[in-house]
Amino acid sequence: AQTVTQSQPEMSVQEAETVTLSCTYDTSESDYYLFWYKQPPSRQMILVIRQEAYKQQNATENRFSVNFQKAAKSFSLKISDSQLGDAAMYFCAYRDATSGTYKYIFGTGTRLKVLA
Amino acid sequence: SAVISQKPSRDICQRGTSLTIQCQVDSQVTMMFWYRQQPGQSLTLIATANQGSEATYESGFVIDKFPISRPNLTFSTLTVSNMSPEDSSIYLCSAGTTFPGELFFGEGSRLTVL
What are phi and psi of A84, to 5 degrees? Predict the structure, then answer.
């Protein structure tokens, strides 16, 4: 069974600095999707960034980028120029691309604090 | 993208009663899921809502306790039956398409059972 592990329950970063959130996963599939979701205190989950496993290039969305290491099964999120609005719970998630079940596996989350 | 409207946003319920949560998506989606989340915790999948047929439940969740309907592609309901204080939680509706695979979420329904 697939698993997603986030080993950092909580992280802190100074405003304008860079922080990296870690995520590892386990799967025997070769084709899958990986996601980072953000859940601010208002609780609605929103997608931060998405990566398709067959793509070598790391996804980037403005200040958010990933370091996708397929062989190591690692998918870290880098937030550059951190802002107060980045404070939230961040969840790493996995989904098979072709298995047909399409269930999403979420990690336990990392709470990010941004210090002014 | 998809916008998901979920209601009620919160409710306080008495032990032994049932509550139905509604989830409406503004576009056609192939997948709909119901999750439960304790504050500050991760998401636990309750079931996959299947259009026009019985939902697919995860281990630890049963239809009698959490009946789910999905009469069409854009609407689903989750009922929490015979509630106890242990059912106090946030219930999240989510939906998406097979490709590109992004999952969208409602704002959640915070239930408190007294």
Answer: -60, -35
What average pLDDT score do residues B45-63 get? Answer: 93
Q: Report the gap between the CA of B33 and the closest CA in chain A (Å).
A: 9
- By C-alpha distance, which of B32, B107, B43, B46 is closest to A107? B43
Q: Which amino acid makes up residue B83?
A: M
Residue A73 burial (CB < 10 Å; 0-12/13-18/19+)?
A: middle
Over its C-alpha atoms, chain A yields an Rg (Å, rounded) of 14
pLDDT at B110: 95
A99 and A1 Cβ atoms separated by less than 8 Å: no
Contact A66, A75 (CB under 8 A): yes
Q: Which one-letter DSSP state was computed for residue B23?
A: E
* Whether the bond into B8 is cis, omega within 30 of 0: yes
Quick check: A87 and A40 in contact, CB under 8 A?
yes
Among the partner residues A45, A93, A102, nearest to B31 by beta-carbon distance: A102
- φ and ψ of B112, to 5 deg: -120, 125
Cβ of A93 within 8 Å of Cβ of B103? The answer is yes
Q: Do B42 and A107 touch (CB under 8 A)?
A: yes
pLDDT tens, position by position, A41-67: 877 899 999 999 998 899 999 999 999
Q: Contacts of residue B40 in chain A, CB cutoff 8 Å? A: 89, 111
pLDDT at residue A101 in the model: 67
- Assign B85 to helix, strand or coil: helix
